[in-house]
Specification:
The chain has about 260 residues and is α/β, with parallel strands linked by helices. The chain has helices spanning about 20-30, 65-80, 100-110, 115-130, 150-170, 190, 200-205, 225-235; strands at about 10-15, 35-40, 55-60, 85, 130-135, 175-180, 245-250. Strands 3-2-1-4-5-6-7 form a seven-stranded parallel beta sheet, sandwiched between helices. α1 crosses α8 (about 225-235), α2 (about 65-80) runs parallel beside α4 (about 115-130) and α3 (about 100-110) packs parallel to α5 (about 150-170). α5 (about 150-170) links the parallel β5 and β6 (about 175-180).
């Protein structure tokens, strides 16, 4: 089996308390990586602590000083961070006329400021070392308008373009930056929008009244489906890939 280049190296994952983030942590561990799993203090990080090579740390990605302090502490105690997966995110599903200033700022604080704070540390540290990889988990909503999701879609579009610009800056220094754009994925964020047990069927079928296409593959993604793409882009298997926006949505957006 070809070496992925992850074994023994150190990765930091945000949003690791559940869903896609937890799946990324588990897959990195399977690949032999050491992992710092982070999320808000109130989330269920303890479930990852028993995994070999995993260190759990509370982190609010909207706090730039806290992000910098965590990088300082981890690199002083465990060595340089080789990979960062920015998975932490929040949803907003209200129409523009119902979006308050506070709601807009809440969404952007996590979905945009978070990747920025992480990316800034990646630039300062990995850029100086001349190696590393950064992946932002965005959304297919970054490239396709969504009804009653303007704040969310705009924040994911901003995070996507930030990551591509970061990749342009860091490419000459040997650091790769990529995006994974999931579609509807079987996580609590997704199921929290469903009114009843038919929610999955409605998502798969699509919604003409809200101008949303269905899913050609006729199924929702699993967190593991998204994690596989994230870990691939972090690994040496993607050694010549940077600034790529990889859609993992079962064809739902009808684009690549």
């Amino acid at each position: 089996m070809r070496d992925s280049g992850l074994s023994g190296r150190l990765a930091l994952v945000t949003g690791a308390g559940g869903g896609i983030g937890a799946a990324v942590v588990r897959l990195l561990v399977e690949e032999g990586a050491r992992v710092v799993a982070t999320d808000l203090p109130s989330t269920a990080l303890s479930g990852l602590a028993f995994l070999n090579g995993v260190r759990v740390e509370p982190l609010d990605v909207s706090d730039g000083a806290a992000v910098e302090a965590l990088f300082d502490r981890i690199e002083a105690e465990d060595g340089p961070i080789d990979f960062v997966a920015s998975v932490a995110g929040v949803l907003s599903s209200v129409t523009v006329d119902q979006t308050s200033d506070a709601e807009w700022r809440r969404v952007f604080a996590v979905n945009v400021d978070g990747p920025f704070h992480l990316g800034r540390e990646v630039s300062r540290r990995m850029g100086e070392r001349g190696k590393g990889a950064f992946v932002t988990v965005s959304s297919n909503a970054a490239g396709v308008p969504r009804h009653a999701m303007a704040a969310y879609a705009a924040s994911k579009a901003a995070a996507t373009m930030f990551t591509r610009c970061l990749g342009l800056e860091l490419g000459p220094k040997g650091v790769r930056c990529n995006i994974v754009a999931p579609g509807s994925t079987l996580t609590s964020m997704q199921t929290g929008m469903w009114a009843d047990e038919d929610g999955a069927a409605r998502v798969i079928a699509g919604s003409p009244e809200t101008f949303k296409a269905g899913i050609p593959l006729q199924k929702l993604a699993t967190p593991e489906d998204i994690a596989e793409a994230v870990v691939f882009l972090l690994s040496d298997r993607a050694a010549h890939i940077t600034m790529t926006d990889l859609y993992v949505d079962g064809g739902a957006t009808l684009r690549g």
